[in-house]
Amino acid sequence: MRLTDIDASVFFPGSQITTAFGWDPDPRFGPRVHHAVDRAGAGMVRLPFAAKRLDWKNADTVGNSVLRAFADPGIELRMLHFRPNERTPDLLNALRNGRGLPAGAPLAPAGDVGIGSGRHVHYQLMLDPECDWTELDKLVPGWTQDDKTDWLSRYGLAFALERSRRGIRWINTRALRRADPWTGMDRIIIDSATILGL
Ligand SMILES: [Zn+2]
Questions:
Q1: Residue ranges covered by each domain of the chain
Q2: What is the pLDDT of residues 90-125, one digit of tens each?
């Protein structure tokens, strides 16, 4: 799959971004690096690409429900906060049978399981740094540029703490690279809203 095959229009129609990717000064949860995008709205969240496999956990270490959708090469869309009892029959069947789902498949309405203020979907488009991302070189030239020194001078100690706590290797306004706390794997997380409209 190419990143540009992701169909942002089916993902969560009518929703609004409530927290963007990047520095989040909101004192309720931070200040912090929000390595994801949050969207809130009525209606159904749907898969924006054909997933070869899905994985569900009721709670991560801080109590967020976690749905992971995988596609080749090395692409994962991770979605947080769905309520277990609001998952669609399509999603439950796919999880039960270890199958994927086609693009556009309904997943669940945005939920409120875990950390957050009200219903929203927190989602991260995660990439395996070992794969070939020349597509992104064309879409976002210089997307792997390391701006962490600038972030440090702008946000000071708060950023230094975030960087060490989250294991951020490099960061700029469009992407960051860090150890995934869920798997321990080295991963790149991109600002899918700005880059792909997702
Ligand atoms: Zn979030």
A1: 3-196
A2: 999 999 999 999 999 999 999 999 998 899 999 999
How far apart are the C-alpha atoms of 144 and 25, rounded to whole Å?
24
Q: The tokens 């942002």 sit on which residue?
A: 8
- CA 110, CA 112: separation in Å to the nearest integer? 7
Topology of the domain comprising 3-196: Glucose Permease (Domain IIA) (2.70.70)
Distance from residue 60's CA to the centre of ligand 1 (Å): 14
Residues whose CB is under 5 A from ligand 1 (ion)?
A: 36, 38, 122
Q: How far is the CA of 80 from the centre of ligand 1 (A)?
A: 8
Exposed / middle / buried, residue 152 (Cβ in 10 Å: 0-12, 13-18, 19+): middle
Rounded to the nearest angstrom, the distance between the alpha carbon of 122 and the centre of ligand 1 is 4
Query: Taking the model in full, what pTM does it have?
Result: 0.96
Report which DSSP code applies to 48: S
